[in-house]
Amino acid sequence: MNTTTWIAFSAISLAFFLAACGGKKSSSISLDEATPGDFQLKPCTIKLASEKYAADCGLLAVPENRADEESRLISLPVTRIRATGDTPAEPIFYLEGGPGMSNMNAKPPKKLLESHDFIMVGYRGVDGSVKLDCPEVAQAIIGDGVDVLSKASLAGMSAAMRQCAIRLESEGVDLDGYTIQEVIADMEAARIALGYERINLFSFSYGTRVAQLYATQHPDQIHRSAMVGVNPPGHFVWEPEMIDAQIEHYSQLYAQSEDPRTADLVQTISKLSHNMPENWLFFKIDPGKVKIVSFAMLFHRNTAAMVFDAWLSAENGDPSGLALMSFAYDFIIPNMSVYGEFFSKGVSADHDPNRDYFDDMEPTDSIIGSPMSKLIWGSARDEEGATWPTALMPEEYRQMKPSDIETLLVSGNIDFSTPAEFATEELLPYLRNGKQVILSEMGHTNDVMTRQPEAIERLLTYFFDTGEVDDSLFTYEPITFEVKAGFPAIAKIALGFAFLGVPIIVFGLWKLTKRFMNRRKK
Q: What CATH class has 39-125+175-233+399-466?
Protein backbone atom coordinates (compact mmCIF):
# COMPACT_ATOMS: atom_id res chain seq x y z
CA MET A 1 0.00 0.00 0.00
CA ASN A 2 1.57 3.31 -1.04
CA THR A 3 1.56 6.48 1.06
CA THR A 4 -1.25 8.11 -0.91
CA THR A 5 -3.51 5.10 -0.46
CA TRP A 6 -2.69 4.90 3.25
CA ILE A 7 -3.59 8.56 3.70
CA ALA A 8 -6.88 8.05 1.89
CA PHE A 9 -7.79 5.13 4.14
CA SER A 10 -6.81 7.11 7.25
CA ALA A 11 -8.88 10.09 6.17
CA ILE A 12 -11.91 8.01 5.36
CA SER A 13 -11.77 6.18 8.66
CA LEU A 14 -11.75 9.53 10.44
CA ALA A 15 -14.21 11.35 8.23
CA PHE A 16 -16.76 9.45 6.35
CA PHE A 17 -20.13 8.00 5.93
CA LEU A 18 -22.19 5.07 4.79
CA ALA A 19 -22.05 1.83 2.89
CA ALA A 20 -25.06 -0.36 2.29
CA CYS A 21 -25.02 -3.90 3.68
CA GLY A 22 -26.78 -7.01 2.44
CA GLY A 23 -29.86 -8.54 4.00
CA LYS A 24 -30.01 -11.32 6.56
CA LYS A 25 -29.51 -14.89 5.40
CA SER A 26 -32.51 -17.18 5.29
CA SER A 27 -33.45 -20.68 4.21
CA SER A 28 -32.90 -21.78 0.64
CA ILE A 29 -35.56 -22.34 -2.01
CA SER A 30 -35.21 -24.50 -5.12
CA LEU A 31 -36.05 -22.23 -8.04
CA ASP A 32 -35.97 -25.16 -10.48
CA GLU A 33 -38.88 -26.78 -8.65
CA ALA A 34 -40.70 -23.65 -7.43
CA THR A 35 -43.70 -21.87 -8.92
CA PRO A 36 -44.43 -18.12 -8.73
CA GLY A 37 -45.49 -17.16 -5.23
CA ASP A 38 -43.90 -20.12 -3.47
CA PHE A 39 -42.92 -18.98 -0.01
CA GLN A 40 -40.74 -20.42 2.73
CA LEU A 41 -40.84 -18.80 6.14
CA LYS A 42 -39.19 -19.86 9.41
CA PRO A 43 -39.09 -18.31 12.88
CA CYS A 44 -36.03 -16.16 13.54
CA THR A 45 -34.84 -13.43 15.88
CA ILE A 46 -34.01 -9.87 14.84
CA LYS A 47 -31.86 -7.60 16.99
CA LEU A 48 -32.60 -3.88 16.89
CA ALA A 49 -30.37 -1.70 19.04
CA SER A 50 -30.02 -3.70 22.26
CA GLU A 51 -33.34 -5.56 22.04
CA LYS A 52 -34.31 -8.81 20.33
CA TYR A 53 -37.61 -9.30 18.53
CA ALA A 54 -39.50 -12.39 17.44
CA ALA A 55 -39.58 -12.53 13.67
CA ASP A 56 -40.00 -14.73 10.62
CA CYS A 57 -37.38 -14.99 7.88
CA GLY A 58 -37.76 -16.64 4.51
CA LEU A 59 -37.65 -16.54 0.73
CA LEU A 60 -40.26 -15.74 -1.90
CA ALA A 61 -40.14 -17.03 -5.49
CA VAL A 62 -41.22 -14.49 -8.13
CA PRO A 63 -40.91 -14.22 -11.94
CA GLU A 64 -37.91 -12.23 -13.13
CA ASN A 65 -40.07 -10.56 -15.78
CA ARG A 66 -43.82 -10.92 -15.40
CA ALA A 67 -44.35 -9.68 -18.96
CA ASP A 68 -42.62 -12.83 -20.24
CA GLU A 69 -44.60 -16.04 -19.73
CA GLU A 70 -41.39 -18.04 -20.07
CA SER A 71 -39.51 -15.95 -17.51
CA ARG A 72 -37.31 -17.76 -15.03
CA LEU A 73 -37.92 -17.41 -11.30
CA ILE A 74 -35.77 -15.47 -8.87
CA SER A 75 -35.93 -15.48 -5.08
CA LEU A 76 -36.23 -12.55 -2.70
CA PRO A 77 -35.63 -12.50 1.06
CA VAL A 78 -38.54 -11.60 3.32
CA THR A 79 -38.35 -10.65 7.00
CA ARG A 80 -41.34 -10.01 9.24
CA ILE A 81 -40.68 -8.50 12.67
CA ARG A 82 -43.71 -9.39 14.73
CA ALA A 83 -45.64 -6.70 16.60
CA THR A 84 -45.00 -6.75 20.34
CA GLY A 85 -48.62 -5.95 21.21
CA ASP A 86 -51.50 -8.42 21.43
CA THR A 87 -53.79 -6.79 18.85
CA PRO A 88 -51.66 -5.55 15.93
CA ALA A 89 -53.22 -3.25 13.36
CA GLU A 90 -52.34 -3.21 9.67
CA PRO A 91 -48.73 -4.25 9.03
CA ILE A 92 -46.08 -1.82 7.78
CA PHE A 93 -44.16 -2.64 4.61
CA TYR A 94 -40.78 -0.94 4.37
CA LEU A 95 -39.40 0.69 1.20
CA GLU A 96 -35.78 1.88 1.45
CA GLY A 97 -34.06 4.53 -0.66
CA GLY A 98 -31.75 3.97 -3.59
CA PRO A 99 -31.98 2.61 -6.20
CA GLY A 100 -29.05 0.27 -5.68
CA MET A 101 -29.49 -0.12 -1.90
CA SER A 102 -30.69 -3.08 0.15
CA ASN A 103 -34.23 -3.12 1.51
CA MET A 104 -33.36 -5.50 4.36
CA ASN A 105 -31.68 -3.22 6.91
CA ALA A 106 -34.51 -1.18 8.41
CA LYS A 107 -34.30 0.08 11.98
CA PRO A 108 -37.94 0.95 12.70
CA PRO A 109 -38.83 3.18 15.65
CA LYS A 110 -39.62 1.01 18.67
CA LYS A 111 -43.15 2.30 19.17
CA LEU A 112 -44.15 1.33 15.63
CA LEU A 113 -43.54 -2.30 16.57
CA GLU A 114 -46.02 -2.16 19.44
CA SER A 115 -49.00 -2.16 17.08
CA HIS A 116 -47.71 -3.29 13.70
CA ASP A 117 -45.89 -6.18 12.11
CA PHE A 118 -42.95 -4.73 10.19
CA ILE A 119 -42.08 -6.34 6.84
CA MET A 120 -38.97 -6.05 4.69
CA VAL A 121 -39.07 -7.58 1.20
CA GLY A 122 -35.75 -7.63 -0.63
CA TYR A 123 -35.28 -5.41 -3.64
CA ARG A 124 -34.78 -7.44 -6.81
CA GLY A 125 -31.33 -6.85 -8.27
CA VAL A 126 -29.81 -6.20 -4.84
CA ASP A 127 -31.05 -8.59 -2.16
CA GLY A 128 -32.18 -11.76 -3.86
CA SER A 129 -30.77 -14.57 -5.96
CA VAL A 130 -29.76 -12.05 -8.65
CA LYS A 131 -27.52 -9.11 -7.80
CA LEU A 132 -26.80 -6.64 -10.60
CA ASP A 133 -23.22 -5.88 -9.62
CA CYS A 134 -21.19 -3.91 -12.17
CA PRO A 135 -17.46 -4.18 -11.39
CA GLU A 136 -16.87 -2.66 -14.83
CA VAL A 137 -18.63 0.52 -13.69
CA ALA A 138 -16.95 0.50 -10.27
CA GLN A 139 -13.61 0.66 -12.09
CA ALA A 140 -14.61 3.18 -14.75
CA ILE A 141 -16.28 5.53 -12.28
CA ILE A 142 -12.83 6.40 -10.89
CA GLY A 143 -12.27 8.39 -14.10
CA ASP A 144 -9.34 9.29 -16.31
CA GLY A 145 -7.16 10.76 -13.56
CA VAL A 146 -7.78 14.36 -14.64
CA ASP A 147 -11.48 15.17 -14.24
CA VAL A 148 -14.05 12.46 -13.58
CA LEU A 149 -16.69 14.62 -15.29
CA SER A 150 -14.71 15.11 -18.51
CA LYS A 151 -15.93 13.70 -21.81
CA ALA A 152 -13.12 11.16 -21.76
CA SER A 153 -14.09 9.90 -18.31
CA LEU A 154 -17.78 9.71 -19.15
CA ALA A 155 -16.98 7.85 -22.37
CA GLY A 156 -15.27 5.26 -20.21
CA MET A 157 -18.36 5.11 -17.99
CA SER A 158 -20.61 4.64 -21.02
CA ALA A 159 -18.47 1.77 -22.28
CA ALA A 160 -18.48 0.17 -18.82
CA MET A 161 -22.27 0.42 -18.55
CA ARG A 162 -22.67 -1.28 -21.90
CA GLN A 163 -20.13 -3.98 -21.01
CA CYS A 164 -21.88 -4.69 -17.72
CA ALA A 165 -25.29 -4.96 -19.38
CA ILE A 166 -23.95 -7.30 -22.07
CA ARG A 167 -22.29 -9.51 -19.46
CA LEU A 168 -25.40 -9.70 -17.28
CA GLU A 169 -27.58 -10.60 -20.25
CA SER A 170 -25.09 -13.28 -21.31
CA GLU A 171 -25.47 -14.74 -17.80
CA GLY A 172 -29.23 -15.04 -18.37
CA VAL A 173 -30.42 -11.87 -16.66
CA ASP A 174 -33.51 -10.22 -18.18
CA LEU A 175 -32.81 -6.56 -17.41
CA ASP A 176 -36.34 -5.53 -18.41
CA GLY A 177 -37.50 -7.23 -15.22
CA TYR A 178 -35.69 -4.85 -12.90
CA THR A 179 -38.13 -1.95 -12.72
CA ILE A 180 -40.32 -0.22 -10.15
CA GLN A 181 -43.29 -1.92 -11.79
CA GLU A 182 -41.84 -5.31 -10.85
CA VAL A 183 -40.92 -4.16 -7.32
CA ILE A 184 -44.56 -3.26 -6.71
CA ALA A 185 -45.60 -6.70 -7.94
CA ASP A 186 -43.03 -8.26 -5.56
CA MET A 187 -44.57 -6.40 -2.62
CA GLU A 188 -48.02 -7.57 -3.65
CA ALA A 189 -46.80 -11.17 -3.90
CA ALA A 190 -45.36 -10.90 -0.38
CA ARG A 191 -48.57 -9.34 0.96
CA ILE A 192 -50.61 -12.21 -0.44
CA ALA A 193 -48.16 -14.86 0.77
CA LEU A 194 -48.23 -13.40 4.30
CA GLY A 195 -52.02 -13.30 4.29
CA TYR A 196 -52.54 -9.57 4.79
CA GLU A 197 -55.63 -7.89 3.37
CA ARG A 198 -54.40 -4.30 3.69
CA ILE A 199 -51.00 -2.86 4.53
CA ASN A 200 -49.30 0.41 5.42
CA LEU A 201 -46.28 1.71 3.51
CA PHE A 202 -43.26 3.36 5.15
CA SER A 203 -40.88 4.69 2.51
CA PHE A 204 -37.72 6.74 2.05
CA SER A 205 -36.39 8.68 -0.95
CA TYR A 206 -36.46 6.29 -3.96
CA GLY A 207 -38.80 4.07 -1.96
CA THR A 208 -41.36 6.89 -1.89
CA ARG A 209 -41.60 6.61 -5.67
CA VAL A 210 -42.46 2.93 -5.27
CA ALA A 211 -45.01 3.84 -2.59
CA GLN A 212 -46.67 6.52 -4.72
CA LEU A 213 -47.20 4.16 -7.63
CA TYR A 214 -48.12 1.21 -5.41
CA ALA A 215 -50.94 3.26 -3.88
CA THR A 216 -52.38 4.22 -7.26
CA GLN A 217 -52.01 0.72 -8.75
CA HIS A 218 -53.45 -1.15 -5.74
CA PRO A 219 -55.57 1.36 -3.77
CA ASP A 220 -57.73 -1.29 -2.10
CA GLN A 221 -54.68 -2.91 -0.52
CA ILE A 222 -53.06 0.23 0.94
CA HIS A 223 -54.32 1.59 4.27
CA ARG A 224 -51.90 4.45 4.98
CA SER A 225 -48.60 5.62 3.53
CA ALA A 226 -45.84 7.64 5.22
CA MET A 227 -43.09 9.01 2.98
CA VAL A 228 -39.82 10.57 4.15
CA GLY A 229 -37.76 12.49 1.56
CA VAL A 230 -40.36 12.43 -1.20
CA ASN A 231 -39.32 11.73 -4.80
CA PRO A 232 -42.10 12.35 -7.37
CA PRO A 233 -41.79 11.04 -10.96
CA GLY A 234 -39.00 12.65 -12.97
CA HIS A 235 -36.67 13.38 -10.07
CA PHE A 236 -34.08 10.64 -10.25
CA VAL A 237 -32.30 13.42 -12.15
CA TRP A 238 -30.99 16.13 -9.83
CA GLU A 239 -31.42 19.42 -11.68
CA PRO A 240 -28.67 22.08 -11.41
CA GLU A 241 -31.16 24.91 -10.94
CA MET A 242 -32.53 23.33 -7.76
CA ILE A 243 -29.04 22.59 -6.44
CA ASP A 244 -28.13 26.24 -7.03
CA ALA A 245 -31.26 27.35 -5.17
CA GLN A 246 -30.40 25.13 -2.20
CA ILE A 247 -26.82 26.44 -2.05
CA GLU A 248 -28.16 30.00 -2.19
CA HIS A 249 -30.44 29.20 0.75
CA TYR A 250 -27.48 27.84 2.70
CA SER A 251 -25.54 30.99 1.78
CA GLN A 252 -28.25 33.15 3.35
CA LEU A 253 -28.20 31.04 6.52
CA TYR A 254 -24.42 31.24 6.64
CA ALA A 255 -24.41 35.02 6.29
CA GLN A 256 -26.68 35.20 9.36
CA SER A 257 -24.47 32.89 11.45
CA GLU A 258 -21.90 33.96 14.02
CA ASP A 259 -18.56 35.10 12.58
CA PRO A 260 -19.08 34.11 8.91
CA ARG A 261 -15.80 33.77 7.01
CA THR A 262 -17.32 35.19 3.84
CA ALA A 263 -20.17 37.53 3.05
CA ASP A 264 -21.15 35.47 0.00
CA LEU A 265 -20.81 31.69 0.25
CA VAL A 266 -22.25 31.28 -3.25
CA GLN A 267 -19.48 33.42 -4.74
CA THR A 268 -16.83 31.44 -2.85
CA ILE A 269 -18.06 28.08 -4.14
CA SER A 270 -18.78 29.29 -7.66
CA LYS A 271 -15.35 30.91 -8.05
CA LEU A 272 -13.50 27.78 -6.90
CA SER A 273 -15.80 25.46 -8.83
CA HIS A 274 -14.83 27.14 -12.08
CA ASN A 275 -11.16 27.52 -11.15
CA MET A 276 -10.28 24.79 -8.69
CA PRO A 277 -6.74 24.33 -7.33
CA GLU A 278 -4.93 21.56 -9.18
CA ASN A 279 -3.21 20.05 -6.16
CA TRP A 280 -2.37 20.22 -2.48
CA LEU A 281 1.30 19.49 -1.86
CA PHE A 282 1.93 16.42 -4.06
CA PHE A 283 -1.73 15.30 -4.09
CA LYS A 284 -3.76 15.98 -7.22
CA ILE A 285 -7.25 17.44 -6.90
CA ASP A 286 -9.84 16.11 -9.37
CA PRO A 287 -12.47 18.89 -9.69
CA GLY A 288 -15.27 16.52 -10.70
CA LYS A 289 -14.64 14.27 -7.70
CA VAL A 290 -14.67 17.23 -5.33
CA LYS A 291 -18.01 18.39 -6.73
CA ILE A 292 -19.58 14.93 -6.52
CA VAL A 293 -18.47 14.30 -2.93
CA SER A 294 -19.53 17.84 -1.99
CA PHE A 295 -22.98 17.27 -3.46
CA ALA A 296 -23.41 13.93 -1.68
CA MET A 297 -22.41 15.47 1.64
CA LEU A 298 -24.79 18.40 1.22
CA PHE A 299 -27.66 15.94 1.77
CA HIS A 300 -27.34 16.32 5.55
CA ARG A 301 -26.67 19.43 7.60
CA ASN A 302 -23.68 18.25 9.67
CA THR A 303 -21.70 17.06 6.68
CA ALA A 304 -22.82 20.13 4.71
CA ALA A 305 -21.04 22.31 7.27
CA MET A 306 -17.86 20.30 6.68
CA VAL A 307 -18.17 20.83 2.93
CA PHE A 308 -18.50 24.61 3.31
CA ASP A 309 -15.55 24.66 5.71
CA ALA A 310 -13.38 22.91 3.11
CA TRP A 311 -14.35 25.30 0.31
CA LEU A 312 -13.81 28.36 2.52
CA SER A 313 -10.38 27.08 3.55
CA ALA A 314 -9.48 26.59 -0.11
CA GLU A 315 -10.48 30.17 -0.86
CA ASN A 316 -8.01 31.22 1.83
CA GLY A 317 -5.17 29.23 0.31
CA ASP A 318 -5.60 25.83 1.99
CA PRO A 319 -7.06 23.28 -0.47
CA SER A 320 -6.25 20.27 1.74
CA GLY A 321 -9.93 19.63 2.44
CA LEU A 322 -10.73 19.55 -1.27
CA ALA A 323 -7.83 17.15 -1.77
CA LEU A 324 -9.23 14.89 0.92
CA MET A 325 -12.63 14.79 -0.78
CA SER A 326 -10.96 14.01 -4.08
CA PHE A 327 -9.13 11.07 -2.43
CA ALA A 328 -12.23 9.88 -0.59
CA TYR A 329 -14.21 9.63 -3.82
CA ASP A 330 -12.19 6.62 -5.04
CA PHE A 331 -13.01 4.65 -1.91
CA ILE A 332 -16.65 5.62 -1.51
CA ILE A 333 -18.36 6.22 -4.85
CA PRO A 334 -17.33 2.96 -6.63
CA ASN A 335 -18.95 0.91 -3.84
CA MET A 336 -21.80 3.25 -2.98
CA SER A 337 -24.46 1.41 -4.99
CA VAL A 338 -25.31 -1.77 -6.83
CA TYR A 339 -25.00 0.11 -10.09
CA GLY A 340 -26.79 -2.36 -12.36
CA GLU A 341 -29.90 -2.05 -10.23
CA PHE A 342 -29.48 1.72 -10.06
CA PHE A 343 -29.32 1.97 -13.86
CA SER A 344 -32.22 -0.41 -14.45
CA LYS A 345 -34.62 1.37 -12.10
CA GLY A 346 -33.45 4.86 -13.02
CA VAL A 347 -33.36 4.44 -16.79
CA SER A 348 -36.73 2.67 -16.92
CA ALA A 349 -38.37 5.39 -14.83
CA ASP A 350 -36.87 8.77 -15.73
CA HIS A 351 -34.43 8.62 -18.63
CA ASP A 352 -35.12 11.02 -21.51
CA PRO A 353 -33.31 9.71 -24.61
CA ASN A 354 -33.62 13.10 -26.33
CA ARG A 355 -31.91 15.10 -23.60
CA ASP A 356 -28.26 16.21 -23.65
CA TYR A 357 -27.40 15.46 -20.04
CA PHE A 358 -23.70 16.27 -20.48
CA ASP A 359 -24.40 19.95 -21.16
CA ASP A 360 -27.69 20.27 -19.27
CA MET A 361 -26.19 19.10 -15.99
CA GLU A 362 -23.43 21.72 -15.95
CA PRO A 363 -24.65 25.09 -17.26
CA THR A 364 -21.86 27.64 -17.51
CA ASP A 365 -23.59 29.98 -15.04
CA SER A 366 -24.32 27.28 -12.43
CA ILE A 367 -22.56 27.20 -9.05
CA ILE A 368 -21.44 23.55 -9.19
CA GLY A 369 -23.90 22.18 -11.74
CA SER A 370 -25.41 18.79 -10.97
CA PRO A 371 -22.27 16.65 -10.73
CA MET A 372 -23.83 13.32 -9.77
CA SER A 373 -26.44 13.58 -12.52
CA LYS A 374 -23.75 14.47 -15.03
CA LEU A 375 -21.75 11.42 -13.96
CA ILE A 376 -24.67 8.98 -14.19
CA TRP A 377 -27.00 10.43 -16.79
CA GLY A 378 -24.22 11.92 -18.88
CA SER A 379 -23.00 8.35 -19.35
CA ALA A 380 -26.39 6.85 -20.21
CA ARG A 381 -26.03 7.54 -23.91
CA ASP A 382 -23.14 7.61 -26.38
CA GLU A 383 -22.63 7.54 -30.15
CA GLU A 384 -24.04 4.01 -30.32
CA GLY A 385 -27.22 4.93 -28.44
CA ALA A 386 -28.45 4.02 -24.96
CA THR A 387 -25.75 2.38 -22.87
CA TRP A 388 -28.22 0.54 -20.60
CA PRO A 389 -30.93 -1.51 -22.32
CA THR A 390 -33.76 -1.61 -19.74
CA ALA A 391 -36.87 -0.30 -21.49
CA LEU A 392 -38.98 2.58 -20.21
CA MET A 393 -41.90 1.49 -18.05
CA PRO A 394 -45.44 2.12 -19.32
CA GLU A 395 -46.58 5.73 -19.00
CA GLU A 396 -48.93 4.87 -16.13
CA TYR A 397 -45.87 4.10 -13.98
CA ARG A 398 -44.12 7.36 -14.89
CA GLN A 399 -46.74 9.89 -13.87
CA MET A 400 -48.90 10.71 -10.87
CA LYS A 401 -52.58 9.89 -10.53
CA PRO A 402 -55.12 11.08 -7.97
CA SER A 403 -55.19 9.02 -4.78
CA ASP A 404 -57.54 8.76 -1.79
CA ILE A 405 -54.99 6.96 0.39
CA GLU A 406 -54.21 8.70 3.68
CA THR A 407 -50.66 9.89 3.02
CA LEU A 408 -48.08 11.72 5.10
CA LEU A 409 -45.22 13.54 3.37
CA VAL A 410 -42.22 14.45 5.55
CA SER A 411 -39.41 16.62 4.20
CA GLY A 412 -36.52 18.75 5.35
CA ASN A 413 -36.47 22.23 3.85
CA ILE A 414 -32.78 22.00 2.81
CA ASP A 415 -32.85 18.53 1.28
CA PHE A 416 -30.59 18.45 -1.78
CA SER A 417 -31.70 14.96 -2.81
CA THR A 418 -35.48 15.31 -2.56
CA PRO A 419 -36.40 18.99 -2.14
CA ALA A 420 -39.63 19.60 -0.24
CA GLU A 421 -40.88 21.87 -3.03
CA PHE A 422 -41.31 18.89 -5.36
CA ALA A 423 -43.58 17.12 -2.89
CA THR A 424 -45.57 20.31 -2.28
CA GLU A 425 -46.03 21.31 -5.90
CA GLU A 426 -46.06 18.02 -7.79
CA LEU A 427 -47.40 15.30 -5.49
CA LEU A 428 -49.55 16.86 -2.77
CA PRO A 429 -52.17 18.19 -5.25
CA TYR A 430 -52.90 14.58 -6.28
CA LEU A 431 -53.41 13.38 -2.69
CA ARG A 432 -57.00 13.99 -1.62
CA ASN A 433 -56.09 12.84 1.90
CA GLY A 434 -52.51 14.02 1.90
CA LYS A 435 -50.69 15.95 4.62
CA GLN A 436 -47.19 17.44 4.53
CA VAL A 437 -44.76 18.26 7.34
CA ILE A 438 -41.72 20.35 6.38
CA LEU A 439 -38.97 20.43 9.00
CA SER A 440 -36.99 23.65 9.11
CA GLU A 441 -33.23 23.45 8.52
CA MET A 442 -33.18 19.70 8.09
CA GLY A 443 -31.82 17.85 5.10
CA HIS A 444 -32.42 14.39 3.66
CA THR A 445 -33.78 11.29 5.39
CA ASN A 446 -31.03 10.80 7.98
CA ASP A 447 -31.61 14.30 9.37
CA VAL A 448 -35.35 13.69 9.55
CA MET A 449 -35.02 10.32 11.31
CA THR A 450 -32.16 11.00 13.72
CA ARG A 451 -31.97 14.64 14.77
CA GLN A 452 -35.13 14.58 16.92
CA PRO A 453 -35.93 10.87 17.29
CA GLU A 454 -38.74 11.21 19.83
CA ALA A 455 -40.52 13.74 17.63
CA ILE A 456 -40.33 11.67 14.45
CA GLU A 457 -41.41 8.56 16.37
CA ARG A 458 -44.47 10.41 17.67
CA LEU A 459 -45.27 11.76 14.20
CA LEU A 460 -45.08 8.35 12.52
CA THR A 461 -46.77 6.34 15.27
CA TYR A 462 -49.68 8.76 15.58
CA PHE A 463 -50.16 8.85 11.81
CA PHE A 464 -50.14 5.07 11.33
CA ASP A 465 -52.51 4.67 14.31
CA THR A 466 -54.98 7.47 13.51
CA GLY A 467 -54.29 8.95 10.09
CA GLU A 468 -53.72 12.33 11.74
CA VAL A 469 -50.57 14.44 12.19
CA ASP A 470 -48.93 15.20 15.53
CA ASP A 471 -45.72 17.15 14.99
CA SER A 472 -45.91 18.87 18.38
CA LEU A 473 -42.62 17.44 19.67
CA PHE A 474 -40.49 18.99 16.94
CA THR A 475 -38.55 22.06 18.00
CA TYR A 476 -36.68 24.55 15.87
CA GLU A 477 -33.00 23.64 15.75
CA PRO A 478 -30.97 26.34 14.00
CA ILE A 479 -28.12 25.05 11.91
CA THR A 480 -24.59 25.66 13.10
CA PHE A 481 -21.71 26.03 10.69
CA GLU A 482 -19.08 25.49 13.36
CA VAL A 483 -16.83 22.55 12.49
CA LYS A 484 -14.60 21.10 15.21
CA ALA A 485 -12.61 18.74 12.99
CA GLY A 486 -13.07 19.66 9.35
CA PHE A 487 -11.57 18.06 6.28
CA PRO A 488 -8.53 20.37 6.19
CA ALA A 489 -7.63 19.36 9.74
CA ILE A 490 -8.30 15.68 9.03
CA ALA A 491 -6.14 15.79 5.91
CA LYS A 492 -3.21 17.21 7.85
CA ILE A 493 -3.63 14.72 10.69
CA ALA A 494 -3.73 11.86 8.20
CA LEU A 495 -0.63 13.20 6.48
CA GLY A 496 1.13 13.41 9.83
CA PHE A 497 0.20 9.83 10.67
CA ALA A 498 1.42 8.71 7.26
CA PHE A 499 4.85 10.24 7.68
CA LEU A 500 5.01 9.15 11.31
CA GLY A 501 4.00 5.66 10.27
CA VAL A 502 6.90 5.23 7.85
CA PRO A 503 9.70 5.51 10.47
CA ILE A 504 7.67 3.41 12.90
CA ILE A 505 7.32 0.65 10.32
CA VAL A 506 11.01 0.90 9.39
CA PHE A 507 11.99 0.75 13.06
CA GLY A 508 9.72 -2.23 13.62
CA LEU A 509 11.18 -4.08 10.65
CA TRP A 510 14.70 -3.29 11.89
CA LYS A 511 13.86 -4.68 15.34
CA LEU A 512 12.34 -7.85 13.87
CA THR A 513 15.31 -8.35 11.57
CA LYS A 514 17.78 -7.81 14.41
CA ARG A 515 15.92 -10.28 16.62
CA PHE A 516 15.85 -12.85 13.82
CA MET A 517 19.58 -12.43 13.16
CA ASN A 518 20.39 -12.72 16.87
CA ARG A 519 18.42 -15.96 17.07
CA ARG A 520 20.33 -17.36 14.10
CA LYS A 521 23.62 -16.64 15.88
CA LYS A 522 22.58 -18.70 18.93
A: alpha beta
